[in-house]
Write a structure and sequence with these properties.
heterotetramer, A: 16 helices, globular, disordered C terminus, B: mainly beta, Glycoprotein, Type 4 Pilin, 2 domains, four-stranded antiparallel beta sheet
């Protein structure tokens, strides 16, 4: 296979920047693409080259297949890295790249297609002898069938859209009555959301942990397991904080887990980097969930403990080269955590926020890696995912990593828009988190918005700050009913009221 | 100098004095002393209170001031002139529903209204649902009031700051 | 020994910040001190507590022993960390701390005193059977004696002030004539600079490499060697870029080297972190130079490959605890480099620069650690060392680390004052550097200021930028001899001329 | 529009045209085209030249403009009006020694002067030594001229921007 010299990054923001960095280090030209509102995005500034691909809405730019491929060919790229999201798990795009003579840095199109179908993936796992959650062998056509399955495996049950994923198209039912009520709705939603109304039924796991296996596979059929990542702390089925190793694992579990992941990868002839997701029940049994045929947002925690550069490995694999470490993956050292810094307001049901980065000072120092997609003055666009930065730390063990994360979060200055840094400070300091007692229901069980309310000291500091502001202000205001015009160091509180709850 | 500060729902009278970079505040009979220093980049101060180091930023938000503590925690504060306080009192204590205009916080799709014209909306009540960044988000009233006619059609896209609904003030 | 809960950091800027970070991670209260011009310094912002200790000049604040100790006692500190510079190698201060009931985080006062004297240190090394540079056994009283030494060991020779160090008080003489000429001058300078005019004579090593050993010793007498650092790239005898491992070392040399360093440490009953400096001749023989009884600026490269936190180790040692790794130091992984980002103008003989940080964007991403003492808007004070930041990278091997350093330097945005980022870009890209062919004469042999001059492309970009500026400008200027007042998009070049070469 | 640019000692006439965010420059018979976008935080532009991404900052330095490329390389540039060029020409080519005032670049100690009153100082010649940040640094003349009387005493401390020596212009 010919060496890769010019890579078009079919993505934006933080992940495009991260990919460009590895390309730079490997002496490969990084080619960014950008939508109109992304002209000033960091990935445009840090890439070697950058080209426009259309208006803000994703479908008109980052998801415009023709435009992206036309650009790749025009600028003589010889490979495309999809990052995550957008075209990352789109077999049509992967195929189109190959047809256009571009190396797609990822798995084979047919693998992406096969694993994209939950049922096919489930079947593959079963064939590979990997435990799956008890449930219907395939899609369930009628409510009657669903009831039969329920009788067999018992409640609570999960109704799952075959084409769903990432928490979308799922519904838990706890009784026969709930099942009857939910059946049509779930199918309807699945049809509307994914153009595929097939639904299957499986046992719902209470207080599950989300643990996933990072795998790498090269074109010689070599498959490596690079350790697990626990991603149980979630909101709206979106991961908020990930770590490795999982506090729920011992060496024995890990070995069985890695072996299961590799069996699946081998069974489907996997290529490049991938993630096999499992859920772990309270007894520590793991069940296959799905395979993500791409780089994960949380890949850095694996890099921190292994010293590997997963993007560099993907690049080498796409060139037909073997894994850099041959048959012996590096032994993980220490522990790592990643906190996703997101433009949202945890105090208002994690409502997304837009705005300008008025002031920012990122954490630094020993064991801290911060992959940001923003900079001072940057205006966060509304069209895309609201991930601003990934704060990653390394520690000699989990507690050291946790304390270091707390330290780094304490240093994090980010002003001008709502974000979840204060939430992460709360989370990482929480005793249940410190104890490693996690589940995907962590927030439901522990979090209330009031918990982020400033304490007494904070109140006093705020008071001092307000006083200093009042002192600096000196606006001429005439006080209605007051004694005419006077110099006044403050404004009327009702002035500048925008009304509503403007979060911009 | 004296003024009123509203913080976390509490109204307090505050007396302020400064010498050089020392700030002395009297509130609720207590005395707060801080060494302060203005930092570059916006209205940012370094405060040393009994030696403890704090970094604060003051910005003008939608409702009075927003003070950001240690880079991440934002506290809304209102600073008012004593006279205004008196006026309010003169106008009679009970304020009823303040009335307001609900604005679109960001560009997106107005999915639906949660209230109809004529409804009495209380503070904190959800009035509309807007979809942005692939998520649905409820907009809530802050001061409440009597809902007017919808200003945009449901399922239509709206731009940031666009008025969605007016709430008329309603005396208690 | 009682646990340490509150540590006063008797230092400033980048190193004070670095120490505060470890304290925060270990749940120890960090107490900063600051001079008047340092009120807005990053270490004041990031420490838990901060107290003023006087005016700008070091002797009135950071070197004001009474003031520092009085503050430490008043704020109930139970230990003091000196960082480097200032009181770091001052036995009087270390002793005063002990007398004030404060734990001094560093070696014992008597060790500092003993090793502070070049001749005593040299003698100790000799007793420990560590190779030293051939020369006079002690100070040389007369020119006659110096000549006798010369006859014995031959030219070129080095005249060295007994109390000198860091390149100060040294002079190379290549002939008897030069020796005669230099003798009185050198003694005079030594007397003036160090209040001690003792001078000794040793063989001058041509094209020496500077390689040093990081050691850690606990109160149980355990001494560990944590690998070497090569710091050959220097200007004005100040290190510019450091790395580990040394490209000049093989396993055999390293073992002998580490063994020699540990022997010296044991011989003097060393405690805490220390560095044994050696010079390496072109045949790869190493000779003892001196011992730095403190943390080094370049300590992070050792942390990157070992995963250790040297400040945390110092803290534990000061509490009487054993080394965290017992008798088996972690096996170093990969390679690391540190570039010192300094406020100076390499194009003007590295003349120091002061000014305001108008815009800054630090490098991030995999394998990059940047320990900065500055932030946007920060005014660099004139009173102190001009080190702004330490850019440190890790790579799987030296070449990977080098390429990553190049990548990180390429991302580094720092505007408003002169600095050496562009110089480092030149250095790290240089083929001799890439080949690991280093010596303390690297700059003399390879560097010319013209090498930093912008190339043709840079010229064109500058032209475009200037044009955009001209376009934005629109000042009313009346053109003498021109046709009266007209709108003109540019200023007269002679306007705003400050004259001289203002570097502020 | 047209103007003169002095860059690395070369004087060139430049013609500039812009449409939206496209910049077209003609210089030395060559044509440079760039897509430009102004970034926040100072006068900073992102330039895309044949797709290649560059970040530039323009600041007004001691001598005309200073353009910083990719965050670290600073290039002094002078932008001049064509008429000024003509004037210069009219005044006769040879410029002789421009004359200037040497300023202290930073607070420090004036160690010594390297020239005496009446000396003819050529551009680049060292005129004084100042000690700051524990280092001795030579100050050099940029335009040269005839040295006047020392403005401060040797071994005395000076503040940033303080005039140290005047150099009178000397025609060639």
């Amino acid at each position: 296979m010919k060496p890769i010299r010019r890579v078009l990054i079919a993505n934006r923001g933080e992940i495009a920047v991260r990919i460009a960095r590895t390309l730079r280090e490997r002496d490969v030209t990084s080619i960014a693409v950008f939508s109109e509102p992304d002209r000033a995005s960091l990935h445009v500034l840090l890439a070697d080259e950058a080209y426009p691909i259309g208006p803000g809405p994703s479908r008109d730019s980052y998801l415009n297949l023709e435009r992206v491929l036309e650009t790749a060919k025009r600028v003589r790229a010889d490979a495309v890295h999809p990052g995550y999201g957008f075209f990352a798990e789109n077999p049509v795009f992967a195929k189109a790249c190959a047809e256009a003579g571009l190396a797609f840095i990822g798995p084979k199109p047919e693998t992406i297609a096969a694993l994209g179908d939950k049922l096919a993936a489930r079947a593959a796992a079963e064939r590979a002898g990997v435990p799956i959650i008890p449930g219907s062998p395939g899609p369930v056509a009628t409510l009657g069938e669903a009831r039969d399955v329920a009788k067999r495996i018992g409640f609570p049950l999960m109704l799952k859209a075959a084409a769903g994923g990432g928490g979308k198209g799922m519904r838990v039912v706890r009784s026969d009555a709930e099942l009857s009520a939910a059946w049509d709705v779930t199918r309807g939603e699945a049809g509307a959301a994914f153009g595929d109304d097939r639904v299957f039924v499986e046992r719902a796991i209470e207080r599950p942990r989300h643990v996933e296996a990072q795998i790498l596979a090269d074109s010689s059929g070599r498959v490596a397991f690079l350790g697990e990542r626990e991603c149980s702390v979630q909101r709206r089925h979106q991961k908020l904080l990930e770590e490795t190793p999982s506090p729920a694992f011992d060496a024995k579990t890990r070995a069985a887990f890695g072996d299961a992941a590799c069996r699946i990868a081998k069974a489907v002839g996997y290529l490049s980097a991938g993630t096999v997701e499992f859920i772990l029940d309270e007894e520590g049994r793991f069940y296959f969930l799905e395979v993500n045929t791409r780089l994960q947002v949380e890949h850095p925690v694996t890099e921190m403990v292994t010293g590997l550069d997963l993007v560099a490995e993907q690049l080498a694999i796409a060139e037909g080269a073997p894994l850099s470490f041959g048959d012996t993956p590096p032994v993980p050292r220490g522990a790592s955590m990643e906190a996703r810094i997101i433009a949202e307001d945890p105090a208002a049901n994690f409502m997304p926020s837009v705005g300008r980065v008025e002031r920012v000072r990122f954490p630094q120092g020993p064991g801290v890696r911060n992959d940001a997609g923003i900079y001072r003055g940057y205006q966060v666009p509304v069209f895309y995912d609201s991930l601003l930065s990934k704060l990653v730390v390394w520690g000699e063990d989990r507690e050291h990593a946790r304390r270091r994360m707390l330290r780094a979060l304490g240093e994090f200055v980010l002003e001008g828009l709502h974000h979840n840094v204060a939430f992460h400070r709360w989370l990482v300091a929480h005793e249940a988190f410190a104890a490693g007692n996690l589940s995907t229901r962590f927030l439901d069980e522990h979090f209330k918005p009031e918990m982020l309310a400033p304490d007494a000291t904070a109140g006093e500091i705020a008071l001092l700050a307000a006083a200093l502001h009042a002192r600096e202000q000196s606006l001429e205001v005439s006080l209605p009913g007051g004694n005419g015009v006077e110099r006044s160091p403050w404004r009327w509180s009702d002035r500048r009221r925008a009304g509503g709850r403007t979060r911009a | 100098m004296k003024f009123w500060v509203t913080l976390a729902g509490h109204d307090r009278e505050v007396t302020l004095r400064t010498e050089d970079e020392t700030l002395v505040l009297e509130v609720d009979g207590r005395r707060l002393v801080a060494d302060f220093h203005r930092l570059p980049d916006g209205e940012v101060y370094s405060l040393l209170v009994d030696g403890r180091s704090h970094e604060v930023r003051v910005a003008t938000g939608a409702d009075g001031l927003e003070v950001t503590l240690d880079g991440a925690t934002t506290v809304p504060v209102e600073v008012r002139h004593p006279l205004e306080k008196m006026l309010r009192a003169a106008q009679g204590g009970a304020r009823g529903l303040g009335g307001e205009t609900i604005l679109a916080p960001m560009p997106g799709l107005l999915v639906a209204y949660k209230v109809a014209a004529g409804d009495v909306v209380t503070p904190g009540q959800a009035v509309a649902v807007i979809e942005a960044m692939k998520m649905q988000n409820e907009l809530t009233a802050r001061h409440g009031g009597v809902a007017g006619e919808p200003l945009v059609a449901e399922r239509s896209s709206v731009s940031a700051g666009q008025p969605l609904l007016r709430l008329k003030a309603a005396p208690a």
